[in-house]
Specification:
Layout (H helix, E strand, L loop, with lengths): L5 E6 L3 H13 L4 E7 L14 E2 L2 H6 L5 E4 L4 H13 L3 E4 L2 H18 L2 E3 L10 H11 L2 E7 L2 H12 L4 H10 L8 H4 L2 H14 L10 E2 L7 H9 L2 E12 L2 E12 L11 E8 L3 E8 L3 H16 L21 E9 L13 E6 L4 E8 H13 L3 E10 L13 H4 L1
Parallel strand pairs: 1-2, 1-4, 2-3, 4-5, 5-6, 8-10
Antiparallel strand pairs: 7-9, 7-11, 9-10, 11-12, 13-15, 13-16, 14-15
This protein binds NADP nicotinamide-adenine-dinucleotide phosphate (NAP).
Length: about 425
């Protein structure tokens, strides 16, 4: 018996939307077709037949003939309206919008269950790498201990150029924009917010927890300077933006920070717009997923896989999981960090008990310290204000856990 072709309403025809349109055409995909495309501007020239286009996304959402809404717009607030209305009609919603999904995930999952629709968003995390699906599957059967990786292609592209010393910060950012993998507004890419949204989505699929964006420690790469890169290089390290998610005795922690990684770390080799995710779990051990984290075709490919999964009636397992919200106390998570600053007064904001090393240069100072997440959070406004830089050096200790190593105590005199 011939299968009826599903009808797709595509909302957004930018980098990802156009990629999907081309991909479906080239693959001669028979199970679904784009029957209409909603965009915002009436003035732009479009690379598809004129009759497909309309300028009101809700026309597609409300159209009874449309089975699948693919939402790939750059406006998270409107994307949320589209998502709610689509799911309330029991339709399939496929989205690539990490901010919208991370912020409203529980509500959307409830709507999915209540109205019998399907909600898939693989393209929202790590582009072409199927990490949401993979973690969702692992989580069904496994105890996941640690997830870390490179989730933002733009910041990784910039850091790659800076680590190699081959470009200025501004040139590297402009190139990432020209290549189509920086967000329309790249602030979220470089501030770590984009990576944080992805971390929140993965937390749901790997630990069944719901995290709030404002509750997590986040520091981006905006303040990075040549001296930070020189320090990393002189210690045979590279600076990467690395989100972490971990569980210890059924309690969870997460943060997004730049990290100085050495050559033995697999993330050291993840360059340009590539993304990677490392996961450690009880029985499967360590796994590494690597691939293109952004760009027109790689992201469109993820959306395509979601279309196929929706047709096969596949859903994420995490939807039925209760929200345990069993978070480790920020006070008890201790991180070894590098802090660089210019203003000597800044030093007095750091608890000296936790400083293990200090470097004074004519232009800047560096301290190596072990600080709790709550202490780092308290430092964030001063770090931003004074253009200081902070990066994780590697070790994460959980207070009370046997792996905790003694903190070397120093005085100011010993340090400086
Ligand atoms: N680019 C990537 O590599 C990548 C990777 C992963 C995830 N994503 C996510 O995918 C989504 C789309 O990204 P993109 O790079 O394709 O964005 P983009 O190139 O800036 O395109 C955005 C599209 O959205 C349309 N749009 C905006 N507001 C609209 C509205 N109210 N109604 C209808 N259409 C509207 C725009 O219409 P006009 O054409 O008329 O301006 C444009 O076609 C974002 O959520 C992004 O975070 C992107």
């Amino acid at each position: 018996m011939a299968m009826t072709k599903k009808k797709i309403g595509l909302i957004g025809f930018g980098c990802v939307g156009q990629g999907l349109y081309q991909l479906l055409k080239e693959k001669q995909f028979r199970e679904a077709e784009i029957v209409a495309i909603a965009v915002k501007s009436k003035k732009k020239k479009r690379n598809a037949p004129k009759e497909l286009f309309c300028y009101d996304a809700m026309l597609l959402v409300n159209d009874q003939e449309v089975d699948i809404i693919v939402e790939v717009i750059d406006d998270p607030e409107y994307a949320y309206e589209i998502a709610k209305r689509t799911l309330r009609q029991g339709k399939t919603l496929i989205s690539a919008n990490k901010k919208m999904i991370a912020t409203h995930l529980i509500e959307l999952q409830v709507l999915q269950v209540e109205f019998g629709g399907v909600l898939l968003y693989e393209a929202a995390v790590c582009g072409a790498i199927p990490v949401v699906k993979k973690l969702d599957e692992l989580f069904r059967y496994e105890n996941i201990r640690m997830i870390r990786g490179i989730f933002n292609g733009t910041s990784n592209y910039i850091l790659t150029k800076l680590n190699r010393g081959s470009s200025s910060y501004q040139d590297a950012l402009s190139n990432a924009q020209a290549l189509g993998f920086a967000e329309t507004d790249p602030t979220n890419d470089i501030s770590g917010l984009d990576a944080l949204y992805k971390t929140i989505i993965l937390a749901r699929h790997s630990f069944g927890i719901t995290l709030h964006p404002d509750a997590l420690l986040r520091f981006g790469i905006e303040n990075i300077q040549a001296c930070d890169l020189a320090y990393a290089r002189s210690n045979s390290k590279r600076i990467k933006l690395v989100p972490h998610l971990f569980s210890v005795n059924a309690k969870f922690g997460a943060f997004v920070l730049p990290q100085m990684v050495d050559i033995s770390d697999k993330l050291y080799h993840v360059d340009d717009e590539f993304n990677a995710l490392m996961v450690e779990s009880d029985f499967a051990g360590e796994q590494l997923y690597y691939g293109r984290g952004a760009g027109s075709y790689p992201t469109a490919f993820s959306v395509f896989c979601d279309i196929r999964d929706a047709i096969l009636e596949r859903r994420y397992a995490a939807q039925g999981v209760s929200d345990i919200s069993n978070l480790l106390d920020d006070e008890n998570i201790l991180l070894d960090v590098y802090i660089r600053f210019h203003d000597p007064e800044f030093l007095h904001l750091i608890d000296v008990d936790f400083i293990t090393e200090g470097i004074i240069d004519e232009d800047f100072r560096i301290v190596i310290a072990q600080l709790s997440i709550s202490k780092i959070k308290a430092l964030l406004p001063a770090l931003s204000e004074r253009k200081a830089f902070l990066a994780l050096l590697g070790k994460i200790s959980i207070q009370g856990d046997q792996e905790l190593q003694a903190v070397k105590r120093s005085t100011y005199e010993e340090v400086f």
